[in-house]
Design goal:
Layout lengths: L3 H10 L16 H11 L10 H11 L2 H12 L3 E2 L12 E2 L2 H26 L9 H14 L5 H8 L4 H14 L4 H13 L3
Parallel strand pairs: 1-2
Length: 196
């Protein structure tokens, strides 16, 4: 489980007379191995994995919350892009795994689906529509004001602007006063929906 990368590196170098610190677990299920891998490499540990790597480990272990988040994302026709090193961005891919998990954890499954659907339908061809700031901004807007507006109203009001328009407005407010870019993005969404 732990130490396999060091062991593989030593094997390629041909050095077989070196002690390698590692943890070995015998007679455990695949799900238990994945859970141990996740726990050893979780954020806060020195070897923290990317949020995408952690989500993949949770999916492999059959963790119910991770499975629900994944299924809700896929049901909307959105793919989770686990490879952050890839330069290719697509309007149907989402890379902001930490933001996805945050929205899901705070708002729950239905809220998470509502946030993704609003961004997908309001900005249909924009590869930036699922970035971290927009995800969290839409989450904050719907969390605060979602009971006062329908999904159709949100989507229709946002169709007249671009993600760049929202980002510019949020950046201007963030420069004027200190604060979190996501909250100003939520404020820019609120402003757009309440205009005209």
């Amino acid at each position: 489980i732990d130490g396999q990368q060091r062991l593989a590196a030593l094997r390629t170098k041909g050095d077989h007379n070196v002690m390698v610190p590692s943890l070995l677990y015998e007679h455990i299920s695949y799900q238990r191995a994945v859970k141990i891998y996740h726990d050893v490499n979780a954020p806060g540990n020195k070897r923290g994995l990317t949020p995408g790597d952690l989500l993949k480990a949770e999916l492999a272990a059959g963790e119910p919350t991770a499975l629900d988040l994944y299924n809700r994302t896929e049901e909307l026709g959105i793919n989770i892009d686990f490879d952050l090193r890839s330069a290719q961005r697509s309007p149907v891919n989402i890379r902001a795994v930490a933001a996805m998990r945050h929205v899901y954890r705070i708002g729950g499954g239905e809220h998470y689906t509502r946030v993704l659907r609003a961004l997908k339908e309001a900005f249909p061809e924009d590869p930036a529509r699922f970035n971290q700031t927009l995800l969290k901004g839409m989450h904050l807007f719907l969390f605060r004001f979602g009971s006062r507006v329908t999904d159709r109203e949100v989507i229709d009001k946002l169709r007249g602007v671009t993600t760049e328009d929202i980002a510019r407005k949020a950046a201007a407010w963030a420069e004027l006063s200190r604060g979190d870019r996501a909250s100003y993005t939520g404020r820019a969404i609120h402003s757009q929906i309440n205009s005209g």
